[in-house]
């Protein structure tokens, strides 16, 4: 099984830097494969808790080299919840790459473990008779300190449901649970990696020279 690793996070940073520089992306240092994946960007401000700046991926298996390239940019620049990440924010960024595994159909909306499983919910909105779906990665509920019920209710809101959440509505949920491997790298670690492996630190358009 392929696990998320340092080289994948480096490739995501490389992709974002290449975008700012209108340059070619250095070739990746990991092998091709087909897996569901996510790229998450967070911003660390004044040593505080990292704040989400973008998180987008795919629940379907796809070629991971193109997948990480595409979602590194999509999550950084086109997550509709946030303004696009600017080059000047790079020194405060950390990137988490996730490879999703072990998809299972859950017995019901509570058939999963906080901190172990990511969850995908699908349900019909009773107010509009429309299908809604959303996912949280395995680390989200634990990071937020949610119970399983709190996570489900939050995920229903994320899916766009604005009605009253009752137990009968929750019972209609079709849930898929999954697990993941993840690797997190801060920009400073990325710069150190590039310096050690390539011999020089990149100059980045939009970032003051010497700013690491």
From TrEMBL:
Pfam families, alphabetized: AMMECR1
Q: Which InterPro entries match?
A: AMMECR1 (IPR023473), AMMECR1_dom_sf (IPR036071), AMMECR1_domain (IPR002733), AMMECR1_N (IPR027485)
Which intervals hold domain AMMECR1? 1-194
Signal sequence span per UniProt? none
The record's PANTHER family line, in alphabetical order, gives: AMME SYNDROME CANDIDATE GENE 1 PROTEIN, AMMECR1 HOMOLOG
Its protein name is: AMMECR1 domain-containing protein
Q: Which gene encodes it?
A: LOC110697484
